[in-house]
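Hi R.,

Here are the chain sequences for the assembly we discussed:
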Amino acid sequence: MHSKRKKELAEKLEEKRVCAFPDEALELVLVNIKCHKDRNSVSLVCKDWYNAEKWTRTHVFIGNCYSVSPQILVRRFPNIRSVVLKGKPRFSDFNLVPPNWGADIHAWLVVFASAYPFLEELRLKRMTVTDESLEFLAMSFPNFKALSLLSCDGFSTDGLAAIATHCKNLTELDIHENGIDDLGGGWLNCFPKNFRSLEVLNFANLNSDVTFDSLERLVRRCRSLRILKVNKNVTLEQLQLLLISAPQLTELGTGSFLQSSTQWQSTDLESAFKRCKHLRSLSGLWEVTSIYLPVLYPCCATLTFLNLSYASLESGELAKLLPNCSQLRRLWIVDTVQDKGLQAVGLNCHLLEELRVFPSDPFDQDILQGVTELGFVAVSHGCPRLRYVLYFCRQMTNEAVSTIVNNCPDFTHFRLCIMNPYQPDYLTNEPMDEAFGSVVKTCTKLQRLAVSGLLTDLTFEYIGKYAKNLETLSVAFAGSSDWGMQCVLGGCPKLRKLEIRDCPFGNAALLSGLEKYESMRSLWMSACNVTMNGCRLLARQMPRLNVEVIREEDERYDSEVNKVYVYRSVSGSRSDAPPFVITL
Amino acid sequence: METTLGLLGGGSSGGNESNSTVAKSEVANKEYPPEAELELGLGLSLGGGGGGRVKPCKPCAWGEYRRILTAKDFPSVVSQDDSSAISGFNRANGSAGTKRSADTAAQEVSSATAVSQVVGWPPIRAYRMNSLVNQAKAPTSEQDKIVNESDKTRDALKGKSYSGEQNKNDADFREKAPLGFVKVNMDGLPIGRKVDLNAHTCYETLAQILEDMFFRPSKAIGFTSSGGEKEKGSKLLDGSSEFVLTYEDREGDWMLVGDVPWGMFRSTVKRLRIMRTSEANGLAPRSQERNQRQRS
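And here is the predicted structure of the full complex:
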């Protein structure tokens, strides 16, 4: 009996193997799955699928560079061609993280050089990148194609020169809003004379002149160039020449419109713009004025993204421009357009999905300028498809926000910044709790929320209870007690990033999230009521979390914690922590 | 609503930018007497009213000004219940601290002070901040200073806030602002406005614009009045409203608007204030005289 049973089992296994999906076929299918969330799911099915997925994954996204080590990464995924890495906590954008905090790319590059010699793409956000690293990158990866640096620091134009010189197959160079040491525009001359593969070139961030001849020749020979964003030193006349050479552009960032010579004709520029029939995105536009705006009208018809955030337009100018932009999906503007300008947005851009209004004068708090709740309401009336908003203002009311979300219930990203901390509803003098309450109750798809104004714990009760899809929450100068933060940590099942500053949340609040933090990417708390004891307790209870206290020199009391950063990690505590980062 | 008082004797409303920050105190001191004198000025000013246009020596004028507007005129920013929020906020200010006048209670924190001394607030990325700074029209020396300041911010932020330095530079070149923009503040409203005097050639149109701005804001931005805003008064110039329009001239004196020819007004005006008629004691009689003269 015993041996018969064995035989049966053996036959069954044989059958299974014959009917089993061959690995090669599985891999062929999996190659087409791009989304990393889907791939994560695939790898959990069974051992075979885990392996197949492992060998076919070519792109990896790492939201926190300290959550995993490069060694673990290359062991897990041996075949990576494209990496996205994010480093510092987001509040480093606002100078809340001291310099030399970490997130240096170099250690990663060294490991990649041996494990991924065929690496093609590297996209970094908030990482420290030195010129040495850029040179190392350029020399180590012969197939390297795309480099994108956003909000990074530590490098200079010399690093860019190295990239231009050595990356023979470069298709993308995207240098975007970084703390870069601009030593001159000579780097652009380093592209070899026969180099023609560039598709994306963005150096809008840089301040020094590039040699225009080099740029023009580069643009002319790169026939596949589709994205070109120049810096403000490129004049209108030069821009016109570039446009003539590259009418195939889909995304254009202009130089400055400040024109000192009156001789030059704008009609030539207008016809140059007219030739760009494929333009989807327009940015730059520094110092553009009423005289030159009409030049843009012809190419506005196809625009889906218009970035006017470096052009301080008046309401009238915007009102004349927008009727030409009926296809707009994304609009970034400065609050100099005022409520009247926003009214024009509501009247003309019915397909609008994203609106960002930046303040022109963020520190002059005692003058009512910029936009108010009225402008936002006007946009919401005309743009029901709005799903992403970033709005800086000086006054707001609960009723206005309620109206706005009733007009636009599909918000996925709602970032409202009432610039005076603790400012109540200016008409009723009440807290802004009901405003954000209506946001989370109405916008069921909400993924990202930034709150402001005078807020009590009630706001956070609402958030915890209703924001079922919320992944990122930014809080500043809000809340009345620990209870607020506890509500958020006790609710919000999909919460991944929580960043808090200047709130009365203490150890009880911090510790109430013990079980939550491992399912989150990170927690940042600064200028709250958290102490060393609380942080130590958290670190002790949760060994798979890194609890890092940032201790700056002028802090006197050892028990005080001004800044704490908590994140999950499979690679243990950092080995490169600077002296002011205390890992508990 | 917020109060923007609480600094340097606390006599002015939110329109007084030089009250706002510690960093700006150097600027402020040029224009206002030191605090010790202010406190004396408080006592002396009680009898110092007098009718008509007041043009006494500076400390008395300052005292006079203080008598018209005191801290009690302005509601506090946050109710007593939110003291924990305020104390948390004060701690956040850390080394910068807030200046307070003798009058105001500890709770009344100038939000203007607070914002400009808080690191990283409003949350605008450093790159965009630098662009804003570089775009502003300022004399070259100021420009260089600003660029240096913004470079500094990338390196070290020991105690000093980026925002504070920024604000000081903003103050410097705001005072040299081009065009004819002057600040306008109204009693009871902590947030003021700016109006372009170059767009006007007479008092009537100016008053009209100001009335639209402050009493009928919906109309001012092109929306039809929905009745949400109460009509607070009619003409500012003829004394029939509960408010009067006044201005501060180059010498720091506060006068009624409308008394001098437009051109002269235009050349000496520094900023405007819409004052409650009841508060404008020293200036009101003049207005009545003028009305009587007009009627006769």
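The first strand of chain B starts at residue 181 and ends at 186. The first helix of chain B runs from residue 25 to 31.

Let me know if anything looks off.

Best,
T.
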